[in-house]
Amino acid sequence: MIKLKNIQKRYDTKAGFIYVLQQINLEIEEGEFVTIMGPSAAGKSTLLNILGMLDHDWEGEYYLDENAVHQFKPKQRMALNRQYVGFVFQAFNLLDSLTVYENLDIPLSYRNVKTSERAAIVCDTLDRFGIVGKKDLYPSQLSGGQQQLVAIARAVVASPKLILADEPTGNLHSSQGEEIMELFKKLNNEGTTIIQVTHNDKYAAYGRRIIKLKDGWMEGEVTPEQLLGKVS
Amino acid sequence: MGTLWQDIKYGFRQLVKSPGFTTIAVLSLALAIGVNSGVFTIVNALFLRPLIPVRPDEVVNVTTARAAADRSYRPFSFAEFSLLRESHEVFADAAAFRFAAVGVGAHANAEMRRRFGFIVSDNYFSMLGAVPAVGRFFLPEESRPNANIPVAVVSQALWEQLADGRDCTPLEVSLNGEPWTVVGVAPEGFNGGNAVFGPDIWLPLGMATRVNEAFGQGRTDCDLADPANFALFVIARLQPGLTLETAQSRMPALAVRLSMMATDAADGPRTLEIGVRSRFNMSTEPTSDGPLLFFGLLLLGMAGVVLLVACLNLANMFLARNVTRSQELAVRLALGASRGRVVRILISEGTLIALMGAAAGLLLSFGGNTLLLNSLMGSSSLSALGFSLVVDATPDIRVLLATLAFCMIATLVFAMGPAWHTTREITRGTLALHRSVRTTTDRWGHLFSGRHCLLMAQLALSLALLFCAGLFFRAAYDAAQLDPGFTSEGDLVAEIDYSLVDRDDASIRTSIATVMDRLHALPAVSHVALASHLPFGHITNNLDVSAVDERSSEDPRRARARIASVSGHYFDTLGIKLLRGRDFTDLQWRHPEGAPVVIIDERLAAALFPGEDPVGKHLERSRGPQDTSSEPMEIIGVVSAHWDKVFADGPPPRLFFPLAQRSAQHLFIHIRCADTTALASGDLRHQIRTVLHALDPDIPLVELAPFATILDGNLELWSMRFVSALFGTFGVIALVLAVVGVYGVKAFAVARRTRETGIRMALGAQPRQVFAVFIKQGAVQIAIGLGVGLLLSLAIGHLLASMLLRVSPSDLVVLAAAAFPLAVAALLACVIPARRAAKIDPMEALRYE
């Protein structure tokens, strides 16, 4: 589904080029659950932004299914983003002035889904995530876990093939974190490809592959078992 | 004190660091405070500044009316004035005056100019608290009836012209071609108790018979010794300590004494009334300054709205600026500064801006008022009448204090509120040490946040101001478009005032008839006519007339008609239609011996002879019960109605006499040109002057100008144009401030909602959709603001209804014309920030977090 060849991103400064990502080569199959790990400034979020086609300023080749993203113009990339991608952020990034219902409705409205269909999809998603009772509340009236639940519901409401989650449990306590990860696991089992960035080994192990980044380079790839030390 | 100084220095540094913000803030306030200071200066000059330097509250206007139901008021005779002057149980003193127009020249052969003057009693100046700047005022013997001592007192301005640098009192001058002596000079700014116009010359009552009455008709043998000569206006100073109410309670007793001596006692007993003096009118009837005061208050109110709009704008600017400085302010609080101290820092900046704005505003107001007064003298034909404008628009302590008050109010509104709000938000933790701010408000909170409410209020007030401007503009436009019922184009008017030279009626008739014949012989001239009054002129005279009904002498129909004495061909010359009957013959208008005939207009015909043909019928001057002197006049023609005033519901009923049958010394010659290019080139005017001076070297030609130009200088039209321009200025200032406000708020909203915009983009929003979000919100706010403004406009419109003629106070065209540019300008002000939002890079926006 995703094929990256020699992806690199750099900033041009007075002191010369600063590389944020270098020589990233990666393939991800449809239906995979991949975790990206690494210390701060390793380039994890940058890679996620490139995969989500929010960042257009990079070099290399990026294929998403049959689409050569690197050859696309920003407008075409955003169209592809709408077709493929759902985002989940560490800070939830719900729109504070909209209710839960309206937050779920927003991605559909940007995809020009008819109003009647949107209502059905949103109600279905609310039901699926068990947040029907919260539909008229504003984000500020929800707990962190509830907010992230809504954020994930929002990410999947448009039925994306790919969910990109940037430290989705970073702002949650452990029990809430586990609930969220179980939800990702369930979505993945239903066929959605998930790529998450996390610092937490336990949550990272929900992925079937763990990609390690350091200083913009891919250090390697480990399995969950290797990560948790069950297999040397 | 030290910390306060530190705060001020810090505030000054902050303002210097943001020159753009400071400049916009100071300019906005300068405009708003300038408008307020300027309007207050005029209101101060017209309504507040004492016109009488010594105990002004004691000076009252004295009037007398018939006790009967018709309450007809009239001036006082000299004998009646003397009675009042000696009535020390009520009055400490009483002074008399009447209007006069005199031709003033520096010497016998010098060019003469018409001046408006007062003929006054000897105590007139002392009663008004004036002391002579040079020389003396009048002596009692100079004010006795028929004293015939030719002395005069002049204003400072006239003194400077006449003395021409010489330091001499008394000064010999020429008045109406005769030698007079100027014995004194009135103090600078002496206005005789009138706030707007004042005379340049004062003459003693003893010279009343030698000087003609201003605004009068023909010669008046003004023998003040005649007890039936009611010619004097009276003002009086109440006894010290006597209240107006107590004095009024003593009036009936005095009125009985007055009625006993009045020569018209047979008409019924008279009442005596005293009241507060009008600051604008000199009348024999009690008058109120209420309508003008209402207008002054309205102007102040409108100027206050401009200040409010500017303050709302600045409050928004300060709110936005405070949010961007929230990190710095939070650090100050974290370092131990009290909330009050932080508020003081923010208010210091506001106060500095307000003071700079007030200083610039004061200069603007002074410049604006100077322009206004120059425009008033330049645009109106008042100068031709010899009036002097006495409005003192120099800023005094009251103006300075008011400006300081505007400044303080502005500071309280635009600096205090935002400072308090910001510090409260910081202490609550809503604003913290983050670069961006997470809003926790709902959609309605976004729409009706403090800033947006201020914005909507600005738009509403701006619409109301623009609507008011539009109403007055429309009224001025309609007034200018009004069909007056006569044709002014191609008509040249020569104003000749024989009251300025000593001529008898026969001599005037002979002279003017020759002038007419010679002017008619000029090749470019097609018609020539004479009239004692000019339509839309400053001087009007009315006469109460009754229809003479052969069938019944009981209860004849009465009407008050505007009168004029005219020559033959007057109606042809002015393009007034002769509807029935015929014009005056040469014999009728040139010779006084014929049978009395008149021409009336259709309004008077409808009033006196409804449904009948009035030609051949008779009318007469309405008589009192004892009056048998009136002679019936035959109506020989009926002409179409024509207007006389802009501020009127319609044309007045009119009555025309043949010129010879009614004495007139103030004449207007209408010279209609066959070729209008001759009029434009000025050649014709030169020819006319040459003809007039060749026939009569001393002819008192006051003005020679196209009728259209004279009409254009009409004071009512000027005031209508002035008000529409003034309100238009208010409206445009408010519009500019509102647009700047909309832009500022929207730009700030875009900056604040960068994160939200980034999220929307990350969720798949296209630029046009982000653009639409901001435009939609702006449009809703503009619609709400204009909706509220619409209601406000309609309410204000109804408040102004009494001042608007022929314009509906809820005129939809004006409303649309005011709302449309405001809506478009405000929407355009939203476009730039919305476009900026549409270009936000989602990755950058989310990193911003």
What does this structure look like?
The complex is a heterodimer of chains A (232) and B (849). Chain A has 232 residues and is of the alpha/beta class. Chain A has one domain: P-loop containing nucleotide triphosphate hydrolases (Rossmann fold), CATH 3.40.50. Helices cover 35% and strands 28% of the residues of chain A. Chain A contains 8 helices and 10 strands. Chain A has a 6-stranded mixed β-sheet, with helices on both faces. The longest helix of chain A has 16 residues. Chain A starts with a strand and ends with a helix. The mean pLDDT of chain A is 89. Chain B has 849 residues and is of the alpha+beta class. Chain B folds into 3 domains: 193 residues, no CATH class; 221 residues, no CATH class; 198 residues, no CATH class. The two termini of chain B are 41 Å apart. In chain B, 45% of the residues are buried. About 1% of the residues of chain B have low confidence. At the A-B interface, helix 2 and helix 3 of A face helix 14, helix 24 and helix 27 of B.
Question: What does this entry show, briefly?
Answer:
The complex is a heterodimer of chains A (about 230) and B (about 850). Chain A has one domain: P-loop containing nucleotide triphosphate hydrolases (Rossmann fold). Chain A is about 35% helix and about 30% strand.
Keywords:
heterodimer, A: 232 residues, alpha/beta, Rossmann fold, six-stranded mixed β-sheet, four-stranded antiparallel β-sheet, 10 strands, globular, B: 849 residues, alpha+beta, 3 domains, six-stranded mixed barrel, six-stranded mixed β-barrel, 17% strand
